[in-house]
Amino acid sequence: MSNSPDPTRRSNASRQAILDAAAELIAEVGFRRLTIEAIAVRAGVGKQTIYRWWPSKGAVVFDALLALQHDADGLRIPESGDLGVDLRLLLRETAAGLVDPHLEEPYRAVLTEIQHDPVLVEELRERLLGPLLSATRDWIRRAQDRCQINAATDPAVVVDVLYGPLFYRWLLRTGPLDEDYLQALTAAVLPVITASSGPNPLRASVEGSPPVVAGIED
Amino acid sequence: MSNSPDPTRRSNASRQAILDAAAELIAEVGFRRLTIEAIAVRAGVGKQTIYRWWPSKGAVVFDALLALQHDADGLRIPESGDLGVDLRLLLRETAAGLVDPHLEEPYRAVLTEIQHDPVLVEELRERLLGPLLSATRDWIRRAQDRCQINAATDPAVVVDVLYGPLFYRWLLRTGPLDEDYLQALTAAVLPVITASSGPNPLRASVEGSPPVVAGIED
DNA sequence: AGGTCAAGACGGGCCGTCTCGTCTCGCCTA
DNA sequence: TAGGCGAGACGAGACGGCCCGTCTTGACCT
Predict the structure, then answer these.
(1) Which long-range contacts (CB under 8 A, 24 or more apart) does B8-11 make?
(2) How far is CA A114 from CA A46, A124, B112, in A?
(3) What is the pLDDT of residue B19?
């Protein structure tokens, strides 16, 4: 009847071996041909140990992805004060993650899986997207306070305008995310978000006015 | 050694039955649980007839999607001359397709599959994305000719800025594509597009900022 | 003693291929 | 013009194989 296992007795060695094996295998054969059985064998682990702690193959890969990118860095948003410079750095850093040889496949796998797996959606929302997006929104709000971004625009919408084009091109595979593109994109997006001409309204004047379209809550 | 079947002898009735069955089943059980066998049974068709004409489950769904949306409409881009009105209509029509009960699942399935299936990428590029994007680029060029969109920006980049935020929100499931959002997005994006309105003090401070083309502003 | 562990057996579902007999064509000959 | 012939697509479904997710066993570790 004990439906949920006891986390305090969990073998950390097995957990790490599973994540490592998953990361290796997805790089070797891709997500489609990745199997739980292969992960278990590679990790020297019983299948049950995987099924005990993860609800799906996608969840394993998601944890493997988190471990990988946590090794790499930890989400820092540049803030020099020069919006053009900061924006270019932000987009470049984001794009770098999307095309990183170790990260690209897991990223695609996770974004693929959330299209059909509501549980994973919530996982992604809380542990990856949430922190990232709320940090980005804070960054945007500070730029709005400096009157560098139109204060009348909902930060959540600005986020979409910033990241959207990048992910669109990457997911639909309509073109490369090279330096030229990032340059052109920065130049195109900058005026969109830049505070429009004339005096900018103080943030106080719009505080709480734009009903934020329900999204990820921070 | 005859590797490829003869298209002239293909049964159109079977083809249509397969596409219909695929469309029905994906709506009933989703793409993950959709099987070739089930499609064959529902369509009253031998499995071999499916494998003979389609290379993968994703390809079947892609054709079913094309049939569905061809029934619905045929990509018309509004062009009243008023950029704000046209833009809002374009975004609204695009969003309508993404949330249409009959189309959403197939759309997600196809965009999911292209992450792992190079053959389907090419198929999508040629038969869905290609026509759509080239039509959009033409629309953008005409607006640039009317000095309504900054002529210095690559139309392909403008496409990304227009469609990107929409797809980003839809694929990452960070919020609904409701009327409020489309309104806010249009308001945020329009300024780019519009070749710069009056003087913007910030723009001078940004190195490499886009050359401003004097435009017609409302 | 109770719970996790590695190892692997187990039934089941779907894969992609194949085999079978039928049906529809286009072609050849009388 | 009629009739026979071969090629190939067709419906149906058998087949081996892979992987699924569960279950069993005995060792190990608190």
Answers:
(1) B10/B53, B11/B49
(2) 26, 8, 10
(3) 98
Could you tell me if A121 lies within 8 Å of chain B, comparing CB atoms? yes
Query: Any chain B CB within 8 A of the CB of A213?
Result: yes
Cα–Cα distance between A157 and B187 in angstroms, integer?
Answer: 10
Distance from CA(A213) to C1'(D11), angstroms, rounded: 52
Q: Which residue, A170, A199, A102, is CA-closest to B172?
A: A170
Residue A23 in 3-state DSSP?
Answer: helix
- Measured between beta carbons, the chain A residues lying within 8 angstroms of B192 are 188-189, 191-192
In angstroms, rounded to a whole number, what is the distance separating the alpha carbons of residues A217 and A131? Answer: 10
pLDDT digits (tens, 9 = 90+) for A107-164: 999 999 999 999 999 999 999 999 999 999 999 999 999 999 999 999 999 999 999 9
Residue B137 touches partner A, C-beta closer than 8 Å: no
Residue A194 bridge partners (DSSP)? A149
Verify if strand D has an atom below 7 Å from the CB of B3: no
Chain B contact for A36, CB < 8 A? no
Report the distance from CA of residue A209 to the C1' of nucleotide C11 in Å, as an integer. 60
Spell out, as residue ranges, where chain A has pLDDT lower than 70.
1-3, 72-75, 195-218
For position A214, what pLDDT does the model report?
42
Q: Which domains does chain B have, with CATH numbers?
A: 10-53 (1.10.10.60), 71-195 (1.10.357.10)
Chain B residues in contact with A111 by the CB 8 A cut-off are 115, 171-172
